Each structure stands twice: as structure tokens, then as C-alpha cells.
Amino acid sequence: MRHRFPVFERRVYINSCSQGALSDSVRDAYAHYLGDWDEHGAPWEYWVGRLDAVRSSIAGLVEADEDEIAVTTSVSAGVSALASGLRFEEGRDKVVISDFEFPTIGQIWHAQERRGFRVEHVPAEADGTIPLERFEAAIDERTALVAVTHVCFRNGSRLDVEAVTRLAHERETLVLVDAYQTVGSLPVDVHALGCDFLVAGVLKYLLGSAGLAFLFCRRDLVVGIEPTTTGWFADRDIFEMDIHDYSPAASARRFEAGTPPIPSIYAAIAGIELMQEIGIAETELHVRELNGLLRGGLSELGATVVTPAEPERSGALLCVRSTDVNALVAALDAAGIVTSSRDDNLRISAHAYNTAEDVGALLDALAANRALLG
User: Fold this and answer.
1) How far apart are CA 174 and CA 176, in angstroms?
2) Same domain membership, residue 288 and residue 158
3) pTM to 2 decimal places
4) Last-in-domain residue among 218, 251, 275
5) Does residue 11 share a domain with residue 49?
6) Residue 374 falls inside a structural domain
7) pLDDT band per the 50, 70, 90 thresholds, residue 373
8) How far from each other are the two terminal CA atoms of the chain, in whole angstroms?
9) Same domain, 182 and 223
């Protein structure tokens, strides 16, 4: 299926942690959207059907029910709607977040400090991990919610989300999981994770495009949360057009907002279908093999890999220390290899379409730029 991603005709693309490579099916999906627009003008009923179709696809991906999925334009939109609707009992005013979170998560919960919440960060160890004991010390009887990422976007470290969730629930605390760096690269099951809420998007390993994300909300929690960040697609009847009332949907649709990102929905359906055809569990095994080859080559180069080596403590993303990461990313780009960076780390993220030859080309380019390796 590599031939379905034209970028490989000219470059080595190994940057799926930023954005998945563009496939022929996603390009065709955009053409299909334009054709529908040209043919039908504004077929709203059909577009609502496409929205329901992507909701169904997402639900199947994470082992949830359709009424537990809100389709949003971004993780920021979904978490903001969630935060706007949460009301906690007196004495529970603390939100615990790990220091591995994407800025969206930290910024949204710190914004809730204006509403009287307190935010406590769980710091990382020097080895780039956060042991469960750190969460155990932070989560107490005043904690309302814990926000925890599945895999850190800065160093590729994978957190023991299941254990954090069990600990939080023992203390009657809700858990929000950010799975953006894992969904599509390994199987994600909201029931196995035990989380109350989960957010992710289709831009990366699900091979979709920008502009579409989702929020899972456990069914029994939905009706107790009334977002004040809302819009007409969050209403119980989007075509009722009532400007005199706020009646949110009985399902997780209440976390949605205004006009959905119709073009991105077409692309998301195509990307998810392609990823399901390839196989997510198979992709996890394939990428693990490629990362094994990569780690071996990096060791020979004397490079410092900051991502934990154990499979249960890492995902698809592998990060390497650099003395000048911007120069290193630029040098690789000049050699026809697409990567990215965060902090002082080079980010390398293989996916189903990458090969051992890609890894070899990357290692050759890194050997030629060994002075930039930390």
C-alpha cells in the first residue's frame, strides 16, 4: 500500500507524529466533497449523514458507542466544551495534569482557575518518565479530574494510563485521556483504559487531515454535563432552529458546536477506512520492528534516545537528543527526509507505510550529521 502515498516518490516521510502522509484516498475524498458541492450546492441532510458516518467510524476505533462520541474541529474545542460544563461538588476544586501534556490541555485547565479551580502538575523524572507514585501523591480527596496523555508529544514516553485511571477512580476522581499520539498507531479501547473522557484527532496516525477531532464521554456522565461552550449542532434537534432555548442533545453531541468541518469529515472517513484496511494492531507490530532497527543504528552512532525502550513505556514516536535540533531537522530535510522536533529532541515517527530502507536512509543521514546528535 506504500504506492498509495505519493510523497514516497520523492522523499522519506517519517513524521506521522506531526501529520500522516497524504494518501490517494484522502485526496480523492476532497475531490468527492468538491463534486458534491458543485453538483448539489448545500446538501445539508447528506452532510449530516457524513457526520454520523464519521462518528460511527470513530466509535468503532475506540470501542465506544456512537452516542458517546462528539465530533469536534479540534481537541481544544472538545476539551473546552467539556470544561465549560463540568460542575463539581464543594471541596473538589483541583485538576491534576501531567507535565507531559500538550499545551492545549494545560492551557484549558489553567483557564478554569478563573472559575475557582486549582491546577497541580505532576512532574517527570530525569529519565523522562512519570512513575505512578507521582500521581498517587497528587490525587487526593479534593481532586475533581486528572488529565493524562497516553504518549508524550515531546519525548515519546508512554504513561500507564490504566493504572492512573484505577488510582483516580479509587479516589472518586474523573479521568481525561489525550490519545492523539496513539490512536491509529496502536489499538485504543476506552473500556480497557477505564477512562471517563478521551480526546484525539485524525490528523496523525489515522491519516485524515486537519480540522477534525473527537471527544469520548462515558454514557452515564453525559446528561450531568451541560456545556456553556456550545453551538447549533449540539442541540437536541439541529434543524429546530430555536433561538429562544438551550436544549443540549441527550448524547455526547452536546459537546459539539457550530457548522461541522465538512471537508475534513470526508477526509477523515477515507483515512480511517484506509487505516482499518491496513490494520492498526498490525501497524503497531510493524512500527515496533522498525523502531528496533532504528534504536540499534542510533546506538552505533552514539546517539541519546530519550524515549523509554520498553514497549509498554513507549509508542510509535521515538525521540533523539540533539545539540542543535533545528539544524538537524533542516539537514535531514535537505537530504529528502521529513522529521520534526520538540524541545531539544529530534522526533522520528514511523507508520505502516515506512520500511527498513527508510530507516537505513535516515541512519545514513544522521551519520553524516553526527556532530548534531546529543
Assistant:
1) 7
2) no
3) 0.96
4) 275
5) no
6) no
7) very high
8) 35
9) yes
β-bridge pairing 12-13 and 337-338? parallel
**pLDDT 10s digits, 139-190:** 999 999 999 999 999 999 999 999 999 999 999 999 999 999 999 999 999 9
Q: Please give the residue range of the domain that contains residue 223.
A: 25-275
Percent above pLDDT 70 for the chain: 100
**Residue 198 and residue 310 share a domain:** no
How far apart CA 8 and CA 314 sit, in angstroms, is 26
pLDDT at residue 214 is higher than 90: yes
Mean pLDDT across 208-229: 97
* Domain identity same for 70 and 207: yes
Query: Per residue in 291-345, pLDDT tens?
Result: 999 999 999 999 999 999 998 999 999 999 999 999 999 999 999 999 999 999 9
Polymer length in residues for the chain: 374
SS (H, E, C) the chain: CHHHCHHHHCCEECECCCCCCCCHHHHHHHHHHHHHHHHHCCCHHHHHHHHHHHHHHHHHHHCCCHHHEEEECCHHHHHHHHHHHCCCCCCCCEEEEECCCCHHHHHHHHHHHHHCCEEEEECCCCCCCCCHHHHHHHCCCCEEEEEEECECCCCCEECCHHHHHHHHHHCCCEEEEECCCCECCECCCHHHHCCCEEEEECCCCCCCCCCCEEEEECHHHHCCCCCCCCCHHHECCCCCCCCCCCCECCCHHHHCCCCCCHHHHHHHHHHHHHHHHHCHHHHHHHHHHHHHHHHHHHHHHCCCECCCCCHHHECCEEEEEECCHHHHHHHHHHCCEECEEECCEEEEECCCCCCHHHHHHHHHHHHHCHHHEC
Q: Please check whether residue 51 lies inside any domain of the structure.
A: yes
Overall domain count for the chain: 2
What's the pLDDT tens digit per position in 83-141?
Answer: 999 988 888 999 999 999 999 999 999 999 999 999 999 999 988 899 999 999 999 99
Q: Which residues contact 130 (CB under 8 A, 6 or more apart)?
A: 98, 99, 100, 122, 123, 124, 157, 159
Q: Grid coordinates in use for 266? A: 470526508
Rounded distance, CA 147 to CA 180, Å? Answer: 13
248 near 234, Cβ under 8 Å?
A: yes
Q: Is the pLDDT of residue 43 over 90?
A: no
